[in-house]
UniProtKB/TrEMBL annotation:
It comes from the Eukaryota. GO terms for molecular function: oxidoreductase activity, acting on the CH-OH group of donors, NAD or NADP as acceptor; zinc ion binding. Keywords: Metal-binding, NADP, Oxidoreductase, Zinc. PROSITE patterns: ADH_ZINC (PS00059). Belongs to the zinc-containing alcohol dehydrogenase family. This is Enoyl reductase (ER) domain-containing protein.
């Protein structure tokens, strides 16, 4: 029998995949590895749709390996554990985020920063050992090393899956860059999946939050439902001017190329602009405004496994959940089109458990 994704591993699996840069998804039969001694096998219940899925489905970052089964905000229920698994039992609720492997011995791995390991293995569109393409959570089952699996807190609804990427990606830089101190004034640019979680975490840390958005129609909800203190339209120069030098830090979640200078102007001296959005092309970074106020521009990538569990436990304790639109699997292509137009408040979540049906 010719080698195919369907027979390269022993366990039958089913999901939706894109075959080319059109990014259009359709049903896909493939296979998962046998549950190894340190592996957890679980049935996927919910999976969030991240803008990174869209970037990669369309090869916007230039590293796509087709077929792509996306999905890195995955929540499910354990169906099997390997003989040396210590942290999980059958029936446990679990989550998997953006990575499923790393070297476990480099200077980053040894301080719980697997996300910065040069050999980090992404949950999909990467290679696991043996040059096997990884496939994500738009699928019925997953088999993952327990180190990259987190406990899903009991009082957290399983459809809050976006915490696993949108949540940790905004929680981690707020903490690392010291933007979590009560009384600080934090800006959040782009009110999408990541942005709305940034607002919720920044508020939970006791900071004042200003949303900086291109969408005037998001203002009322941002203030009334998400708890933002104020709202700026980034394309309104008057509003931006009036808010100059008011922010201690900014989390920029924008998925497309956009002007940076107006954001630097919003920062106080010594303020920090943290980029977490990942536009496909470089943004223009004017240097003089950085020099003048000793300002800093940084980046941040998801978070390590220890911090991801910490973030989930914090979210469960403080009742921080994403605002989601739960959709059936066969709605995925429409959801991706709407995501491209910023037409979602604020994250799509696929109801995999109830709506993913095998075709054969
Ligand atoms: P999203 O839900 O689409 O949100 C992005 C938001 O950016 C939009 O809602 C919109 O907000 C704003 N925006 C879109 N186009 C814009 C433009 N041309 N100019 C100005 N603002 C624009 O996406 P997401 O899932 O939150 O992801 C955001 C970005 O973060 C993506 O690039 C994704 O790949 C990246 N990401 C990075 C990490 C990491 O570890 N660093 C992790 C996950 C995702 P308004 O309507 O409010 O303007
Ligand atoms: Zn993501």
């Amino acid at each position: 029998m010719a080698k195919s994704y369907e027979n390269e591993h022993p366990i039958k699996a089913f999901g939706w995949a894109a075959r080319d840069t059109s990014g259009v998804l359709s049903p896909f039969n493939f296979s998962r590895r046998v549950t190894g001694e340190k592996d957890v096998q679980f049935k996927v219940m919910y999976c969030g749709i991240c803008h990174s899925d869209l970037h990669q489905l369309k090869n916007e970052w230039g590293n796509s390996k087709y077929p792509i089964v996306p999905g890195h905000e995955v929540v499910g229920v354990v169906t099997e554990v390997g003989s040396k698994v210590e942290k999980f039992e059958v029936g446990d609720k679990v989550g998997v985020g953006c990575m499923v492997g790393s070297c476990r011995e480099c200077e980053n791995c040894s301080v719980d920063l697997e996300n910065y390991c040069p050999r980090q293995i992404p949950t999909y569109n990467g290679y696991s050992p043996g040059e096997t393409l990884t496939f994500g959570g738009y699928s019925d089952i997953m088999v993952t090393d327990e180190h990259f699996v987190v406990h899903w807190p009991e009082n957290l609804s399983m459809d809050a899956a976006p915490l696993l990427c949108a949540g940790i990606t905004t929680y981690s830089p707020l903490k690392y860059y010291g933007l979590d101190k009560p009384g600080m004034h934090i800006g959040v640019v782009g009110l999408g999946g990541l942005g709305h979680m940034a607002v919720k975490f920044a508020k939970a840390f006791g900071t004042k939050v200003t949303v900086i958005s291109t969408s005037a129609n998001k203002k009322q909800e941002a203030i009334e439902c998400l708890g933002a203190d104020s709202f700026l339209i980034s394309r309104d120069p008057e509003q931006m001017k009036a808010a100059m030098s008011t922010l201690d830090g900014i989390i920029d979640t924008v998925s497309a190329v956009h002007p940076i200078l107006p954001l630097l102007s919003l920062l106080k001296a010594h303020g920090k602009l943290v980029m977490v959005g990942a536009p496909e092309k470089p943004v223009e970074l004017p240097v003089f405004p950085l020099l003048m106020g000793r300002k800093l521009v940084g980046g941040s990538l998801i978070g390590g496994m220890k911090e991801t569990q910490e973030m989930l436990d914090f979210a469960a304790k403080h009742n921080i959940t994403p605002v989601i639109e739960v959709v059936p699997m066969d709605y995925v292509n429409t959801a991706l089109e709407r995501l491209l137009k910023s037409d979602v408040k604020y994250r799509f979540v696929l109801d995999i458990g109830n709506t993913l049906k095998a075709t054969n």
